[in-house]
UniProtKB/TrEMBL annotation:
Cellular localisation: Cell inner membrane
Protein name: Lysophospholipid acyltransferase family protein
One example GO MF annotation: acyltransferase activity
InterPro entries linked to this entry: LipA_acyltrans (IPR004960)
Keyword Cell membrane: yes
Keyword Ligase: no
UniProt keyword terms in alphabetical order: Acyltransferase, Cell inner membrane, Cell membrane, Membrane, Transferase, Transmembrane, Transmembrane helix
The organism of origin for this protein: Mucilaginibacter ximonensis
Segments passing through the bilayer: 12-40
Length: 289
């Protein structure tokens, strides 16, 4: 009961923060950057190791520059995600703009549902929320151990009509709606559970375990596979483009879909690396020798 009470108090505090105007949120983000980067060094060793292994061709100075830019952006991202609790639809659509909004209608007319893939890059939470303002969207997510916080994030992500789907229920949900037009959104850089880490590919210069569920589901429902390419325009403003990777998932070779979305993600990260989640322990699983 005490833990639940503290969690409820925490979510109320986050809601109050979300009501602040953006200029004040970014002042808080500036202070948060100092705390994360300078004072506590939040996961800096993890970040430095990930950057060193991913970009051996870069100098120490170049990697240090990416690291600093990453932590400055991470502070912004944390406050932007909190803002999702109360941001209006109009404000969100002004700040997260799709460059090719016809993509959904074109696939709907062709009778093709969509498996949409992106990574933990730029503001992946905002793009899913903006999706749901005009397109029926299944948001696949990992449940949190804290029930109060799990419900908080689920409400936040589904404010504009998205349907939250816990990861273990993804295939069942997609198959139940395979005769309808749906868009299912996945993060392609999730680390698979150790028991199912059966496929490794080279991603950012390292053997990397890849989640195969995206390919499995796309083939079962015979969807098109689309990658959400994101760019940060300036502080608090983004644009995204839906890029077709596979139009006929059912007839692809084994691992073709997995390799396609993994390679596209890597290219996006290399373009502007400071916007990926470098402090995550992405390479904790190693291939068996």
């Amino acid at each position: 009961m005490i833990n639940k009470g503290l969690s409820r108090l925490g979510t109320f505090f986050l809601y109050l923060i979300s009501l602040l105007p953006f200029w004040l949120l970014y002042l808080l983000a500036d202070a948060l950057f100092v705390v994360l980067y300078h004072l506590i060094g939040y996961r800096r060793k993890v970040t430095q190791e990930n950057l060193r292994n991913s970009f051996p061709e870069k100098s120490d100075g170049e990697r240090a520059d990416i690291e600093r830019k990453y932590y400055r952006y991470l502070a912004d991202l944390m406050l932007e995600i909190i803002k999702m609790t109360s941001i209006s639809k109009k404000q969100l659509q002004r700040r997260m703009v799709c460059t090719n909004p016809q993509w959904a209608d074109e696939h709907k007319a062709a009778g093709k549902s969509i498996t949409a893939v992106t990574g933990h890059y730029c503001n992946w939470e905002w793009v899913s929320l903006e999706f749901s303002t005009h397109t029926r969207l299944f948001v696949v997510y990992k449940t949190l151990a804290d029930e109060v916080m799990d419900n908080y994030f689920l409400r936040m992500r589904t404010r504009f009509g998205a349907v939250g789907v816990p990861m273990p229920q993804t295939l069942k949900t997609c198959l139940a709606h395979k005769d309808e037009f749906t868009v299912s959104a996945f993060a392609g850089d999730q680390t698979p559970p150790m028991a199912t880490a059966n496929y490794f590919t080279v991603f950012l210069n390292q053997p990397t375990a890849v989640f195969l569920g995206i390919e499995k589901i796309a083939k079962r429902v015979d969807s098109a596979v689309i990658f959400c390419d994101m760019r940060r325009i300036k502080r608090g403003y983004y644009e995204y483009t839906m890029v077709s990777l596979i139009e006929d998932a059912k007839n692809t070779a084994e691992y073709e879909i997995t390799e396609a979305h993994t390679k596209y993600l890597e290219a996006m990260i290399r373009r502007e690396p400071q916007y990926w989640l470098w402090s995550h322990k992405r390479w904790k699983l190693k291939p068996k020798t």
